Amino acid sequence: MYGTLQPVNEEVRARDDTPAGERGRAAAIVGVELFEAAVPLSSLARGAMAESDNGLGMALDSEEPWEVADFLYCRLVDEDGVEGWGEAYVWLPESGVSQTGLALAIREHLARYVLGARPTDVQALAARLDRNVARNEMAKGVLDLACHDLAARQLGRPVHDLIGGATVERLPLCGLVPLGSPEFVSGIAAFHQEAGYGTVRIKLGTGPTEDRDVIAAVRERCGDGLRIRVDYNQVHSAASAARALALIEPYGIDAAEQPLRVADLLGMVDLQRRTTIPLFTHEGFFTLAEAVALMEAGGMGVIGINLERPGGLTGALRAVDYAAARGLGTIIHNQPLGVGTAAHAHLAAARWDRLGHVPEIAGDVMFDEHLVVERCAVEDGHLVLPTGPGWGVEVDRDALDDHLVNPPTSLTA
After folding, report:
1. Which DSSP string do the residues of 127-191 spell out, in sequence order?
2. What is this structure's pTM?
3. Residue 92: in which H helix or E strand, if any?
4. I want to staple 184 with a disulfide (CB 3.0 to 4.6 A). Which of 47, 85, 138, 180 is the partner?
5. What is the mean pLDDT of residues 22-49?
């Protein structure tokens, strides 16, 4: 335990009892708080991943264990005491940065540009952060997410009302299936299908023929009505990837995630030309510029988004809209806790007509603890869109405090 979380800069409010919103402007941000948290994976997730040889449930060649997930939470407070939250999930083999690294970047470099800014000015703030601090997209992203939550709470509206409005109230989800034998994988896929999921994402990478047998078993058991996307986690060379994709192509695959190493961009271009399966990057996508370059070069047939990675909701909206303008769909995918689940849901609901693929928001099965008072409801394979102010969920501060790995950081204007 690192103590209770307190509002910051209360003296600022005493200068004028009239809320800033009633003075004709959005209230400025006067406090930034950072919380480094670690949350165990659910027993269900750990058990499923244990079926794979490396215990990770995926083909990623990593020595890092994955039994506990790391998160950074950002709390912004305005001059009227209204708060907004952002959440970022990190794992070093994929994100390349820890929650402590994100907190350091914000504390030492980014927070100074956020303090005093208005949370409604996300475009100007994003440009200012980019001018002064190169890259660091995830650190910028968690700040951007907190700005959106705060701006919406200042207005008493859900975030989706600020980004175009929700077009759906229930979001069909994609179910996760870890690496495993044909019998194991087809069983998990059938379980998802029976629970109301119309799409599954299957981890592959054991070998081209072995992977073909897995997909064949899923098709035989679940039929052609189940949509399938696959994830290789960088396991292939260009030559082996071409063979692997050719073997599963007849089974009707929606998309294939990160078949090649992150740095092999030319290989992605060549590979996309040789397969009808849309390819996309995950470990290799952190900026919109990277995604645009690969799309324009012909190396990506669909875009995959983790909300915090391309600079938060501001960057994610740009990415979805750009892909749609180029005739490509978007796969929203992540394994967040309660705040992140709600944030991804707002994005999906506001851009539903442009996605073409159901989102993969898997925190409900990956974690037993979500660090919110009431988690987002999942019914019959559908996530119910939160409708309250901001993200529509409230952080459980006691639960967050229980999962902190370092004392919180507080910065004030």
Report:
1. HHHHHHS-S-HHHHHHHHHHHHHHHHHHHTSBGGGGTT--S-SEEE-EEEE-S--HHHHHHHHHH
2. 0.93
3. helix 92-95
4. 180
5. 90
